[in-house]
Specification:
Layout: E1 2-8, E2 15-17, E3 20-23, E4 29-35, E5 42-44, E6 47-50, E7 56-63, E8 70-72, E9 75-79, E10 85-92, E11 99-101, E12 104-108, E13 114-121, E14 128-129, E15 132-134, E16 137-141, E17 146-152, E18 155-156, E19 159-161, E20 164-167, E21 173-175
Parallel strand pairs: 1-4, 2-5, 3-6, 4-7, 5-8, 6-9, 7-10, 8-11, 9-12, 10-13, 11-15, 12-16, 13-17, 14-18, 15-19, 16-20, 17-21
Length: 180
């Protein structure tokens, strides 16, 4: 498991700006992970390059009750050469009041099991509430299963506005339970 930048447990009011983060390992690669009550963080104008040969690749991964995160004007390019999944921005388990604005996400790889541009996942005990996905460009290429924007279980009051979404071979905007 490789992390470029990792904010864990009650790390608040941080500004992550102007970085280039390249993780390139044989297992799961996460360019930026924010977890467990790390609130009020600004991620602006960074380049995230999680590229590995096995496991899953994540550009930005928010999890476990993270609120008021501003993710703006970042370039995220995931390019697994043998893993199972690529995710540009992945947010799960109580990610609330988050702005995802004006980011460029490119996820590519050789027929991976799963590829998501922006993936928001909630749960009954920890729903995702108040996420705004605005003016992003998402390109998913060379994939067998891809969703440009994916909302799954316990996701409420999401705004998806003025995004350019492309998924090759096909386009999907999925809201609801992920297909089996």
């Amino acid at each position: 498991l490789n992390h470029g930048i990792y904010l864990l447990t009650d790390v608040t009011n941080n500004n992550i700006t102007g970085n280039t983060v390249n993780t390139n390992g044989g297992t799961q690669n996460v360019a930026l992970k924010i977890e467990a009550g790390a609130d009020n963080n600004r991620i602006w104008n960074n380049t995230f390059l999680p590229n590995g040969t096995a496991g899953s690749e994540y550009g930005i991964y928010l999890t476990d009750r993270v609120t008021r995160t501003n993710i703006t004007q970042n370039l995220i390019n995931t390019n697994s050469t043998g893993g199972t999944a690529n995710h540009g921005i992945f947010a799960d388990l109580g990610v609330n009041d988050t702005l995802i604005f004006n980011n460029r996400i490119l996820a590519q790889g050789p027929a991976l099991t799963s590829m998501m541009g922006i993936n928001i996942v909630g749960a009954s005990a920890t729903p995702a509430v108040g996420v705004k996905i605005v003016n992003n460009t998402v390109n998913l290429v060379n994939v067998s299963s891809a969703n440009a924007v994916n909302l799954v279980t316990g996701v409420f009051h999401v705004e998806i506005i003025n995004n350019t979404l492309r998924s090759d071979p096909g386009f999907k905007l999925v809201a609801g339970k992920t297909p089996e």
